[in-house]
């Protein structure tokens, strides 16, 4: 097993006043040639948006865009005719395909909205754009893995045009679980949202990330109560 450690304080830091974003990988004005992507995982932005503020209408093409709200309410509008609100416990996916325009705003004037913006490079180009969002049952990830994204329409969670699987877990301190890879040759990016864990022989604190390569499974143990996102993705763009 090989690992790449991404400490929380090594991320790009973009503070625009109304938007404070931490970039795991190169994005916008943050450029680090050693932090371009983890396989097809191209963007992992940890965003805070001030009350009433947001991203005006802008285009995307040929990208799988996943949003996972952590707190607050995020209002989404797009050129496919969708007007929705996503909040903690939801997950949203948009296949940009041949092209889509959308905007995202903090629906509330009096509190921040915090969310993860994740981009996955698709394995199919120029598809018809599509949008989906679901509400997850938090009980389904208590001390176990809850699949929230996969390549399969019939599986639990949302789906994407890529051999990628995302899982969440809420692990109590001292609890252990094993993440078993879904596809040989994939890599796994572990992102600690809250708390701390050990993954293999690595200790990860809040907002630390760990890329795992050349493995079939990874042992996880919570050092303290932990909320963790697992993103299994192909390492090759092909």
TrEMBL record:
* InterPro entries associated with the record: Pirin, Pirin_N_dom, Quercetinase_C, RmlC-like_jellyroll, RmlC_Cupin_sf
Q: Enumerate the GO terms in the molecular function aspect.
A: metal ion binding
Q: How is the cofactor bound?
A: Binds 1 Fe cation per subunit.
Q: Name any cofactors this protein relies on.
A: Fe cation
Alphabetized UniProt keyword annotations: Iron, Metal-binding
Q: Where is the Quercetin 2,3-dioxygenase C-terminal cupin domain?
A: 148-233
- What are the binding positions for Fe cation in this chain? 58, 60, 102, 104
**Pfam families tied to this protein:** Pirin, Pirin_C_2
Q: Which residues form the Pirin N-terminal domain?
A: 15-120
Statement: the UniProt record of this protein carries the keyword ATP-binding: no
Q: Which family does it belong to?
A: Belongs to the pirin family.
Q: Which PANTHER family match?
A: QUERCETIN 2,3-DIOXYGENASE
The protein's name:
Pirin family protein
């Amino acid at each position: 097993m090989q690992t790449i450690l991404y400490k929380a304080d090594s991320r790009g830091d973009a503070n625009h006043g109304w938007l404070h974003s931490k970039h795991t990988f190169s994005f916008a004005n943050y450029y680090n040639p050693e932090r371009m992507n983890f396989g097809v995982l191209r963007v992992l932005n940890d965003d805070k948006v001030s009350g009433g503020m947001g991203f005006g209408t802008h285009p995307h093409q040929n990208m799988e865009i996943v949003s996972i709200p952590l707190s607050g309410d995020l209002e989404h509008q797009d050129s496919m005719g969708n007007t929705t609100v996503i909040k903690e416990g939801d997950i949203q996916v948009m296949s940009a395909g041949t092209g889509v325009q959308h905007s995202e705003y903090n629906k509330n004037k009096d509190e921040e909205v915090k969310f993860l913006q994740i981009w996955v490079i698709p394995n199919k180009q120029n598809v018809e754009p599509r949008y989906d969002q679901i509400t997850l049952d938090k009980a389904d990830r208590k001390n176990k893995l809850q699949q929230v994204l996969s390549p399969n329409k019939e599986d639990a969670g949302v789906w994407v045009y890529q051999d990628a699987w995302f899982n969440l877990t809420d692990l109590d301190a001292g609890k252990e679980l094993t993440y078993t890879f879904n596809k040989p040759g994939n890599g796994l990016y572990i992102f600690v949202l809250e708390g701390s864990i050990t993954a293999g022989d690595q200790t990860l604190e809040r907002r630390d990330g760990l890329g795992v390569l050349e493995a079939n499974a990874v042992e996880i143990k919570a050092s303290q109560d932990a909320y963790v996102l697992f993103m299994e993705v192909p390492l090759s763009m092909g």
